[in-house]
Design goal:
Layout (H helix, E strand, L loop, with lengths): L4 H7 L1 H20 L2 H9 L4 H10 L5 H11 L4 H25 L4 H4 L23 H16 L9 H14 L5 H23 L11 E2 L2 E2 L1
Antiparallel strand pairs: 1-2
Helix pairs in contact: 2-10, 4-9, 5-6, 6-8, 6-10, 8-9, 8-10, 9-10
Length: 218
Amino acid sequence: MKKSFGELLYRHRFFIIPFLVLIIICLIILLTTTKPDLFYWVNNHHNHFFDTFFILVTMMGDGLTTVIVVLGMLFINYRYSILTGMAYAYSSVVVQVLKRVFNAPRPSKFFQDLIPIRTIDDYHLYEWKSFPSGHSASAFTLAVILAYLLPHKHRHWILIPIATIIAFSRVYLAQHFLEDIVAGAILGVVLTFQLIWWLENSHWYHSPKLNGRLFGKA
């Protein structure tokens, strides 16, 4: 019997509900604070510890981490690796298309002729293709995958703040605005759940051939 998208979301309500609360809070902030003021507030709260911390944290949303996670899943279960690779590819393609459609300026370009922003020495800043945030989409894509694969679903809310910290690093590092990371988070969650729903209703995804793993059977 074909499984409905609503049933999938209900099974993961301990992830979905906290995520919706987070998005609502972010939308309220975006509606009540101007884009420059919001960015300046974050940009003015820097210190050496957080500079180093967020430079490291933001790597969890880049392409290399994606490759490592996909390859790592091969040692657990082929099916999980396929799911992870397809989810990353799906969200990444959509994000990259939207980046080129909007071609929005990043903070370094947006504030170029305004008040100078605080930056980190020797940390490269991009100027265009700000909306939406690819790192944020990747972080929340992985969060959904983990929520889908890990047991104890009532504890999956903890994945939300972890993914949020990765997404927030993009604003702290002056690579994105809040609206960019919110859009990236929404895309990561919606597209990944959509892909999971499609895979759950695909016969080939449940093939016994995908039960194996590298160097043994799952």
